[in-house]
UniProtKB/TrEMBL annotation:
Has three domains with a flexible linker between the domains II and III and assumes an 'L' shape. Domain III is highly mobile and contacts RuvB. GO terms for molecular function: ATP binding; four-way junction DNA binding; four-way junction helicase activity. Keywords: ATP-binding, Cytoplasm, DNA damage, DNA recombination, DNA repair, DNA-binding, Helicase, Hydrolase, Nucleotide-binding. Homotetramer. Forms an RuvA(8)-RuvB(12)-Holliday junction (HJ) complex. HJ DNA is sandwiched between 2 RuvA tetramers; dsDNA enters through RuvA and exits via RuvB. An RuvB hexamer assembles on each DNA strand where it exits the tetramer. Each RuvB hexamer is contacted by two RuvA subunits (via domain III) on 2 adjacent RuvB subunits; this complex drives branch migration. In the full resolvosome a probable DNA-RuvA(4)-RuvB(12)-RuvC(2) complex forms which resolves the HJ. This is Holliday junction branch migration complex subunit RuvA. It is found in: Cytoplasm. The RuvA-RuvB-RuvC complex processes Holliday junction (HJ) DNA during genetic recombination and DNA repair, while the RuvA-RuvB complex plays an important role in the rescue of blocked DNA replication forks via replication fork reversal (RFR). RuvA specifically binds to HJ cruciform DNA, conferring on it an open structure. The RuvB hexamer acts as an ATP-dependent pump, pulling dsDNA into and through the RuvAB complex. HJ branch migration allows RuvC to scan DNA until it finds its consensus sequence, where it cleaves and resolves the cruciform DNA. Residues 168-213 form the Holliday junction DNA helicase RuvA C-terminal domain. It comes from Silicimonas algicola. InterPro entries: DNA_helicase_Holl-junc_RuvA_I, NA-bd_OB-fold, RuvA, RuvA_2-like, RuvA_C, RuvA_C_sf.
Length: 217
């Protein structure tokens, strides 16, 4: 299994990059969002990867964070969602947007991805809603490290900008679960609060989520 690629970008395609790793070129398929965050040809890049193996096909898919790679794996587990649809969803929403949509049951957000119909979007929400709290608790995850010409690590890989309050969401979710709220309802409340105030810190998110969880009436 190839879990990580680090080298120099030799070519940028419409949906992939060719990364030269000490003379060996690897074609890595990426989402539009990931492609936009990668450096130009000739510069160093590193991606976490997932290898798709079929009888007549071997394809590498690349992700800037482990969290995004894990969402790809989960989406691929939903009947009717293949690699292309998964990459379209992640490219449209990003991992934080996917987590929020799943937590809120917002299948219309999933449907906004090219090639994803309403039935598939609803199935993704229904099947993955239980996974959203754990994924939100992971935060943004780390980016892979870049090599220099001698193979030594030199810096963190460029990647699309992470949501400002991604770690705050994870901390708020953990706090609410510690208070006894079920993972699903806590995730939904935190997602709503984060959507209303993308720059909110942990304390603000907790207070806003608690207001949403308070009994009505």
């Amino acid at each position: 299994m190839i879990g990580r690629i680090a080298g120099r970008i030799d070519h940028r395609g419409a949906d992939h990059v060719l990364i030269d790793v000490k003379g060996v070129g690897y074609v890595v398929h990426v989402s539009d969002r990931t492609l936009a965050g990668l450096p130009p040809v000739g510069e160093a890049a590193a991606l976490y990867t997932e290898l798709l193996v079929r009888e007549d096909l071997l394809q590498l898919f690349g992700f800037p964070t482990l969290v995004e790679k894990e969402w790809h794996r989960l989406l691929m587990g939903v009947q009717g969602i293949g690699a292309k649809a998964s990459m379209a969803i992640l490219g449209t929403l990003g991992p934080d947007g996917v987590a929020r949509a799943i937590a809120l049951g917002d299948w219309n957000a999933i449907k906004a991805a090219p090639g994803v119909g309403p039935k598939i979007a609803q199935r993704a929400v229904n099947e993955l809603k239980g996974k959203a709290p754990a994924m939100m608790a992971l935060g943004t995850g780390g980016a892979p490290r870049l090599p220099d010409d001698d193979g030594e690590v030199i810096e963190t890989a460029p990647r699309p900008a992470a949501p400002v309050n991604a770690s705050a969401q994870a901390e708020a979710l953990s706090a609410l679960q510690n208070l006894g709220y079920a993972p699903g309802e806590a995730a939904g409340a935190v997602a709503e609060a984060a959507g209303a105030d993308p720059d909110a810190d942990t304390t603000v998110l907790i207070r806003a989520a608690l207001r949403r969880l308070a009994p009505k009436g």
